[in-house]
Protein 1
Amino acid sequence: MNMNKIHVKKGDTVTIISGDDKGKKGKVLRVDDKKGRVVVEGLNMMKKHLRPNRDNPQGGIVQIPAPMKSSKVMIVCPSCGKPTRIAREKRNDGKVRVCKQCNKVID
Ligand SMILES: [Zn+2]
């Protein structure tokens, strides 16, 4: 049983609600339910050193998005465009996420 199910899913647009990237938006690339972390495109970037290889004989540094706590992000509702908390509602085909701002179904 997992009581800490993350409120966002891969492909959601989210906004950061705390820290240096506060207010920035991005798309969720990965969700790690077990660790409670998410990876968001273009946010929480960290430098990664690359070893030299055939394509890149010099090696080098790339920036990749690092995992962050899921509590740092809030979903941006695709219907009303506002950052929102979500409600979970039961439907015939399972639970859906509902925007608390406009009450539209997000899933
Ligand atoms: Zn909404």
Protein 2
Amino acid sequence: MLVVYDSRHRLHSDPRGRHPESPSRAVKVLESLTKSEFSNQLSFTGTRDPELDVLLLIHDAEYVEFIRRESSKGFHYLDPDTYVTEYTYTLSASYVTTTYYEALKSLEDREPVLIIPRPGGHHAGRSGRALGAPTLGFCVFNYAAIAAVAYLKRVKSVLIIDFDAHHGNGTQEIFWDDGRVVHVDIHQEGIYPGTGDVVDVGSGAGVGKMINIPLLAGAGDETYMWVLDEIVSRLVEVFKPDAVVVSAGFDAHVGDPLTSLAATKITYRSIGAYLGGLLERGSVGSVSTIVEGGYGDGLVAGLINYVGGLLTRCSHPDNVKAAPAGLSKRVREALKSRLSKYWGIEIKV
Ligand SMILES: [Zn+2]
């Protein structure tokens, strides 16, 4: 597996050291990968120079120019959550450009790719704040979206799985009415950015293809395993995506300081193993994983287990079970009706 990491990410930093999205996160992730039992299966690369044409595949020209201009002014906050430094534009744009080309290459090589970008990306919409979110949520450019767009240059259908604890509103906005992308977003209900209700299903060609799964605080492995078995794997059988993009935030891990979910390494290893199995069997041509959030010890614990699962490439059991208590009754019933209506998938609630 190719791992993309640019050590210049340290230049995107709040000098007061108060921001949870700090350089130490990516440093710890890299160290854990290089020391892991599967390090011999990893190769590492830096980033390419930014290409404006690539950025414009997912963001408006005015927004790209806004970020470039704000970044050139040096360190300051764009909104209460999101800062830039004089290096942020080049850094994030380099990651977007590299993600684009490595996703294309991954499709040819049939090898998964892991991107470790900073800052994160999934809250950044086409022109910045997305779906009415109050801020950019630490993000400036959207890496998951560019990976999906790269795939769509070569194939017809892409599945995006976003298991960051926060709703991937930027990604969802970009593909809202696209029709070629199914976006499954598993997040904690009621926290930032306040989007991603179960009744939000996309529009136009995208109707039914935005699948939001808001979880109650405290939801853990039992709930994630149910979502994987009863929704994701059955959806894959019907939709038959050519490639998969994963927005892999690890802030749903129990103990994360920003959220109240309770996933453990079991969840992350299972998701990784499921996706590795799809790749192994040739069910999908490529899996690109973008690291998003994760602000406690769960970042490294979750990531190592996810990557370990992906490289182990197990098959996944198939058995229909009733929805667990990590989903509210309203969400369970809404999911049941929508999955039946748009996909012919009958779930037990
Ligand atoms: Zn998050």
